[in-house]
Batch of 2 targets.
Target 1
Amino acid sequence: MSGLKEKIRRFHGDESGAPEMSTVMIVALIAIPLVIALILFGKKIYQWFQGGITELDGQSSGGSGDPGHS
């Protein structure tokens, strides 16, 4: 039983990978909410951008809607 306690103490005291692990955790804490937001609101974001692109396309081509034929 004392061997197990010693292994746990050594494992707990080992901080050789701590900086890398903290970097991974920070990236995960940023990426996970973004992925959840894209899953929940992806279609609305797509439609919003499509509406903006259509509006810009109509303004830039003189209202024809086709940038190749103004």
Target 2
Amino acid sequence: MSSAPSSTRSARRLPLAGALRLGRPSGIWFKPALGVVAAVAPPSLLLAALGRLDRAMYTTAGSPCPSSPPP
């Protein structure tokens, strides 16, 4: 067992700064966002017209699934 006091040893920093650094956004960032809006809007508007906004969370969670590209 080591009895060295923790004040004499400096903590080693993990090299996470490079992985967590945000880069510049791409020039087409809005295309996936518009695809999600186009997938979510029709079912949500239909439910709003029917007065069933309580069901909108289910369609909002399921609508982007088919619009995402396959892996």
